[in-house]
User: Fold this.
Amino acid sequence: MAYGLLKGKRGVVFGALDEHSIATHVAKRAIEEGASIVLTNAPVAFRAGTINKLAEELGVEAIAADATSIDDLTNLFEKAPEILGGKIDFVLHSIGMSVNIRKKREYFDLNYDWMQKTYDISAISFHKMMQVAHKLDSLNEGGSIIALTYIAADRTFPFYSEMAEAKAILESYARSFGYHLGERKRIRVNTVSQSPTMTKAGSGVKGFAEFFEYSDKMSPLGNADAESCADYCMTLFSDLTRMVTMQNLYHDGGFSKMGMHPGIMTGELRII
Ligand code: NAI
Assistant:
């Protein structure tokens, strides 16, 4: 159901790779809610072809930008307001990639060059996009910026490896930049801490399927899926949440507040 929550708003959505991507669901919902958007992803994602297909399906433009490149981000935040006919009201950062996880390195044997690349792509890119967009004056007063994160920033989930630290940095940027953008332009910056979700990034993590089930059982509402995450993002991009900023907001069916689950302890609820 659409409520016209984003009627007349303009947005930039990073990270739609295929039909499973959380950003793909956000892009679709934003259009349903009345927004006009530009999609963006790394140049390599364009080679796979799915982003162009999605852009065509949604009737929007897609601009290639490596989120670690200031030049690419400058081009993006110059072009997007031109394409959309005005300054940007909302931005979704839905980007994550760990080189050490991809190369299956254990946490006590990490490669530090790869680690820096992981931080650049998964966290520093968030600062870069806000800094570039702000310097170009591409962001509208009263806008809203969201980055997706995971609870491993705050508690130990060993399989999440160096991504835990990447997400901790990401969440901190939301607080720090949230202050500056709030003071200057009443722009909110928040992170949404999402349940495990079956996507390319999610399923690249070792033991993900088992953990997905564990998390689903531990959460009183079950795991939140990508569609419900997109719904939540709609509220955060809308004016209804105009006083919410610098927060890490859990969208996880209650997982983050559970201590123990009686069913799992007694064995009534079995995992796998
Ligand atoms: P996904 O694999 O569909 O999306 C990740 C995106 O990052 C892809 O579109 C990829 O092309 C993009 N990307 C990678 N390097 C880039 C670069 N240099 N420049 C620009 N874009 C780049 O996976 P998903 O799950 O939709 O991930 C989106 C966000 O949600 C990530 O931040 C992820 O950490 C977060 N998240 C995912 C969870 C999950 O279980 N899937 C749980 C909690 C958070």
Q: What stands out?
A: The mean pLDDT is 96. Residues 14-15, 17, 21-23, 41-42, 45, 66-68, 94-97, 121, 148-150, 194, 196-197, 199-202 surround NAI (CB under 6 Å).
